[in-house]
Amino acid sequence: MGFRPRTVASEHFLWDLMRFLRPGVRSTLLRAVGLTFLALSLSAAGTVPAGFSDVLVATVGGPTALAFTPDGRLLVTTQGGALRIIANGQLLATPALSLGSAVCANGERGLLGVAVDPQFTTNHFVYLFYTFNKDNAGCPTSSQTSPVERISRFTLDVPTPNLISPATELVLLDGVLNFAGNHNGGQLSVGPDGNLYAGIGDGGCDYAGDSGCQGSNDASRDRNILNGKILRIARDGSVPPTNPFLGAGTARCNAGPSAPGTICQETFAWGMRNPFRFTFRPGDGALTVNDVGTGAWEEIDLVQAGGDYGYPCREGAHAALSTGKCSPAPPGLLDPYAEYPHGTIPGTSTTNCGSITGGAWIPTGVWPVAYDGKYLAADFNCGAIVRLNPGTPPTFSDFATGLGNFGVVELLFGPSALGTSLYYTTYAGGGQVRRVDSPPLPPPASTLTTVTPCRVLDTRDAAGPWGGPSLQPGASRDFTLGGRCGIPTDAIAVAANVTVTNATASGSLRISFAGATPTLETISFRPGNTRANNAILGLFGSPAGNVTVASGFAAGTADLVIDVTGWWR
Questions:
Q1: Domain CATH for 546
Q2: Which DSSP letter does residue 382 get?
Q3: What is the DSSP letter of 266?
Q4: Which of 437, 456, 476 is the last residue of a domain?
Q5: pTM, 2 dp
Q6: Exposed, middle or buried, 482 (CB in 10 Å: 0-12/13-18/19+)?
Q7: Domain stops at, among 404, 437, 470
Q8: What would you report as the CA-atom Rg of the chain, rounded to the nearest whole angstrom?
Q9: d(C-alpha 371, C-alpha 383), whole Å
Q10: Which of 45, 77, 283, 417 sits at a 20 to 30 Å CA gap from 455?
């Protein structure tokens, strides 16, 4: 999978060693590696751009993938086999589904992907991608028959809200080989065409035993298996009539490999190592795949139907294996849209990167205009999310850093109390779902309604919701502005004059819409001085109509006065 901690030296040593270990010892070592990288995980909160905030949504162990239902519930898969639900900002205590012994979660296996049916409101269908403990045969790391990757449809909320009965499982695709316990892929998504797309990794080591492991594993070149491929199936498990490989010389591979020499009809694109996470670009629906590299390059592909992306003959756009099925080099290989080398991603402050995971296109209009249409990509190894900027070739720049090494897995934009936010999963901090919010966008000037300056709060007044006590060091406090001074309760922002007086020490105040962690200084001050500043204060947080005031001083006290001069809605 894409979220195993990996450096060039450690990966090659570990997997070369595993090739010579007995299966039971190999499985034990894989489990130890998993425990080690969880133990190494750090706190997830990192550095995001000025004005943005990074807040904890829920603590969830081993979170792998995310999907939203139309009613705003956030579905979270966990590697151990549980599907969790976050509703109204709260993690529900009871999992919607626990696969139990049906799932293998050793190594990089587990419950890895989730998708929601476009007609969920009427049919309540959700789709899960997981490593199935076939025939209850255990979870060995060197078997050609068990476990296997499986895609199934389940029914949520029927008959009990927020729960799935295991009896509703309808298996759509089964028998995908997983020889070595890693490079499973795991992404599952409904595309703009209404079909299900899935990413399958090369299995780590060659299932056929005719090549090797890691960079010498040429299983993705075999057309009669689904490993190292992007798959497309209809939501009932059938093959869409527009798939690129149909007719003579093709066969279904939904229950396992087809005959050598045939091509799997489920294949949409091929020649990949571990297409662990992918998404669709808004507007043109371009399938954007993050394919995890081996020892040198990570790549982002804009995938074409039927396209061959060259692994292991190439890593990114660079020649790699030149023996076996890569001799001679295959013709017509497609270059990645973007790539970056292991170590420092050019144009960023990152270090020790080398395992690309989640990706997300930023929707137009939800963040400041400089972010419109840009792509975000996460790297598991270095705990960073970088921004991809269009160009020939595209360039990278920092977005978020310090998110915890061996952590970030999935990125997804979705609804929040603030509008549209970026959600991400991380193994850091014991496993978390987190949310990144942008600074409030300036409201349109045409909707400004001016008012005679009116005082909405003054902490010098008697104690109360719009009065004292004075602001204390290192503390935050919410104030309700909606409904005061003629401000409508559905106003999204106010024009205000912010004044600090009676300060007994130097410091600053940070003010934001409620529910966000204020990160920008609204006003700074020194002891004994009265300071004022004009500001636009967002009111569209949770609860609406409120602002959060955070003290940026470590000692003393200060009084806050806010006068409003207008409002927007």
A1: 2.60.120
A2: T
A3: T
A4: 437
A5: 0.76
A6: buried
A7: 437
A8: 26
A9: 21
A10: 417
